[in-house]
Design goal:
mainly alpha
């Protein structure tokens, strides 16, 4: 078999695997882990159920793969954005903008991610939860670093950087959950500029410039 044929075969394998993951994300995000079977995922992806088991040993293995590979990629890309050199306010603006675009492009995956992180449906395994929390912790650590630098540079008030990070993340996640619950109400996606404005200036009219 030529290198070109091997490469073509591998590309087809990756395409089939991604098709299965996409189908699983759609079903899990809509129905929850326990209400979806491997047979249903196979039908959604237009494969025989035996094909799924060539890629994933169990349904739990498939579920974990979604987070380890796909959710991790989104968070890693977001970390890369906020880790760039630059002014604190520019970093936060770019971070929120990137996250908002990523949400809109991966709505089903994000819905599933928030369901798992916030325990809105069920826990599948302590191993999976640990993996998700570890990834999320890295993001929180970087955000805290940015908040700490903002305090040192006089951009933010001298309060706990952890409290600032919780406020920043809390505002964003509140918008995300509202959007996930009713995407038709927010057709443009997440209003990241309003989020940043509320974080920096609060809701009081006294803070309007």
């Amino acid at each position: 078999m030529s290198p070109e044929e091997i490469s073509r075969k591998e590309r087809r394998r990756l395409e089939d695997r991604n098709c299965i993951l996409d189908a699983a994300i759609q079903l899990f995000s809509l129905k929850g882990y326990h209400n979806v079977s491997m047979n249903e995922i196979a039908a959604k992806a237009d494969f025989a159920v035996g094909t799924l088991y060539k890629f994933f040993k169990t349904k739990e293995d498939l579920y974990e793969t979604i987070f380890v590979e796909m959710a991790h990629k989104i968070i890693s890309d977001s970390l890369e954005v906020i880790s760039q050199p630059g002014e604190v306010l520019t970093l936060l603006y770019n971070h929120l903008k990137f996250a908002s675009i990523a949400l809109k492009e991966n709505q089903n995956l994000i819905r599933l991610y928030f369901v798992e992180v916030h325990n809105l449906i069920c826990n599948v395994s302590s191993c999976l939860n640990s993996t998700i929390l570890e990834i999320k912790a890295k993001s929180q650590e970087k955000e805290i670093e940015v908040m700490k630098r903002g305090i040192e540079e006089g951009v933010f008030r001298d309060v706990s950087p952890e409290i600032l990070q919780i406020t920043y993340t809390g505002l964003f996640e509140a918008f995300v959950l509202a959007w996930i619950a009713n995407p038709e109400k927010y057709p443009e996606g997440i209003d990241y500029e309003t989020i940043l404005d509320l974080f920096l200036n609060g809701a009081s009219v006294k803070n309007e410039k």
